[in-house]
């Protein structure tokens, strides 16, 4: 008897009432996306559990991709039996035999969601544990820290057994919290900010400001590579690449150097907000962290936020750089982020940006420039790229 399906446990708190079907539908979509290389698999939702029918795909191959799916608390490869204690005992013995080697300890952890079943959890633990122990020489019980923890879950539609349990990524499934636009630079921080919002169920579209010829094609490719990494945690992602050269040049020309950074960020926000509106997204996301660089002060944020009432989410605001780097390493964006290709801000960064910009001043400097025309033009010439550039998840069939 080989594991032929995966039992997926998901958080119950967030799945009450009307939210439940939104949650499970999005979770199914995320799983199909994560397992898109295995078109044989089929999904089945059963009340508070989701089953993945492997249809011949080895569990080991789906294990790592599943660990990246938000909304999963934990998962186990399982075998199924009917609600019949002899069948359960036989399957249990076979599973423990497979996992046993000399000196290993064992326990049974039963769970019963079908209260009609003839035995309660203690009864199941004893009936199954006793049966296995009698037939396996050298196997001993350790209820605190067993080498083999045999899970037996009795449900209305059948009984599921496993000796394995893996932690999921937790969080909420992609798209259950609506959509936001991520201002994605080539740096370390903004991909991490995107990841953190995705973990809370936010669908992300990325916006990147590109200033050719000051920034190279490779700098743009780097951002696309970062965005592609993030798609591993959700589903597809659009990247809007905005031509930003003319605006940056205009700012250099018209705004005193201490304020060019503030003005640049304000122009970015205005453009991002307009694209957000067109795409039906609800918020903007940046990788800013308080005090990390001169332009990331509260005064600066006040001046930047003044261009729009749209929520600007800054999930890294209270995090230390080292902690951000650690997440970047875990999610696989760090090594791309540290590649040397410069983004538009590095090149235009003034020697001494104002750490406490005054909103009235920046407004006054900007009033002599007609940004509106330039902003409109930048939005019109924005290039939209869809990632990943392979088969969309929705092309796969599923079993309901
Ligand atoms: P990151 O590591 O994300 O580049 P940073 O520490 O370099 O951040 P800044 O350069 O001050 O910080 O940028 C602050 C935020 O502004 C970034 O996290 C990102 O969200 C946004 N941003 C900066 N440059 C760009 C760009 N070229 N395109 C899109 N967003 C950008
Ligand atoms: Mg940067």
Automatic annotation (TrEMBL):
Residue numbers binding ATP: 183-184, 208-209, 265, 287, 296
EC identifiers of the protein: 2.8.1.4
Keyword tRNA-binding: yes
Cellular component GO terms held in the UniProt record: cytosol
Keywords (A to Z) from UniProt: ATP-binding, Cytoplasm, Nucleotide-binding, RNA-binding, Thiamine biosynthesis, Transferase, tRNA-binding
Domain THUMP, first and last residues per copy: 60-165
Molecular-function annotations in GO: ATP binding; CCA tRNA nucleotidyltransferase activity; tRNA binding; tRNA-uracil-4 sulfurtransferase activity
SUPFAM superfamilies: Adenine nucleotide alpha hydrolases-like, THUMP domain-like
CDD domains documented for this protein: PPase_ThiI (cd01712), THUMP_ThiI (cd11716)
Catalytic activity: [ThiS sulfur-carrier protein]-C-terminal Gly-Gly-AMP + S-sulfanyl-L-cysteinyl-[cysteine desulfurase] + AH2 = [ThiS sulfur-carrier protein]-C-terminal-Gly-aminoethanethioate + L-cysteinyl-[cysteine desulfurase] + A + AMP + 2 H(+); [ThiI sulfur-carrier protein]-S-sulfanyl-L-cysteine + a uridine in tRNA + 2 reduced [2Fe-2S]-[ferredoxin] + ATP + H(+) = [ThiI sulfur-carrier protein]-L-cysteine + a 4-thiouridine in tRNA + 2 oxidized [2Fe-2S]-[ferredoxin] + AMP + diphosphate
Record's subcellular location: Cytoplasm
Its biological purpose: Catalyzes the ATP-dependent transfer of a sulfur to tRNA to produce 4-thiouridine in position 8 of tRNAs, which functions as a near-UV photosensor. Also catalyzes the transfer of sulfur to the sulfur carrier protein ThiS, forming ThiS-thiocarboxylate. This is a step in the synthesis of thiazole, in the thiamine biosynthesis pathway. The sulfur is donated as persulfide by IscS.
Family of the protein in this entry: Belongs to the ThiI family.
NCBIfam families: tRNA uracil 4-sulfurtransferase ThiI
Full protein name: Probable tRNA sulfurtransferase
Species of the source: Bacillus thermotolerans
């Amino acid at each position: 008897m080989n594991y032929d399906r995966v039992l997926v446990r998901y958080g119950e708190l967030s799945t009450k009432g009307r939210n439940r079907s939104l949650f499970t539908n999005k979770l199914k979509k995320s799983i199909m996306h994560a397992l898109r290389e295995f078109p044989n698999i089929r999904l089945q939702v059963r009340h508070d559990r989701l089953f993945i029918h492997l249809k011949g795909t080895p569990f080991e191959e789906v294990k790592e991709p599943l660990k990246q799916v938000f909304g999963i608390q934990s998962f186990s490869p399982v075998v199924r039996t009917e609600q019949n204690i002899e069948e359960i005992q036989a399957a249990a013995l076979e599973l423990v035999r497979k996992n046993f080697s000399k000196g290993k300890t064992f326990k049974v952890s039963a769970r019963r969601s079908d209260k009609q079943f003839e035995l309660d959890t203690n009864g199941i633990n004893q009936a199954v544990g006793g049966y296995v122990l009698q037939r396996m020489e050298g196997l001993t019980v350790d209820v605190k820290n067993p080498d083999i923890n045999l899970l037996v879950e009795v449900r209305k539609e059948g009984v599921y057994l496993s000796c394995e349990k893996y932690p999921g990524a937790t969080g909420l499934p992609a798209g259950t919290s609506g959509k936001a636009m991520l201002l994605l630079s080539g740096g370390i921080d903004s991909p991490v900010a995107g990841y953190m919002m995705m973990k809370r169920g936010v669908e992300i579209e990325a916006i990147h400001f590109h200033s050719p010829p000051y920034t190279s094609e490779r700098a743009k490719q780097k951002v696309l590579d970062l965005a592609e990494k993030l798609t591993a945690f959700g589903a597809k992602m659009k990247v809007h690449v905005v031509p930003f050269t003319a605006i940056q040049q205009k700012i250099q020309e018209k705004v005193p150097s201490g304020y060019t950074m503030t003005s640049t960020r304000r122009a970015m926000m205005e453009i991002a907000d307009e694209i957000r509106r067109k795409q039906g997204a609800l918020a903007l996301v940046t990788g800013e962290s308080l005090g990390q660089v001169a332009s990331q002060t509260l005064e600066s944020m006040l001046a930047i936020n003044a261009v729009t009432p749209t929520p600007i989410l800054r999930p890294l605001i209270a995090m230390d750089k080292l902690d951000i780097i650690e997440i970047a390493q875990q999610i696989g964006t760090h090594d791309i982020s540290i590649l040397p290709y410069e983004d538009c801000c590095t090149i235009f960064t003034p020697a001494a940006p104002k750490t406490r910009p005054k909103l009235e001043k920046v407004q006054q400097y900007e009033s002599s420039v007609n940004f509106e025309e330039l902003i409109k033009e930048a939005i019109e010439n924005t290039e939209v790229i869809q990632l990943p550039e392979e088969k969309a998840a929705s092309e796969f069939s599923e079993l309901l």
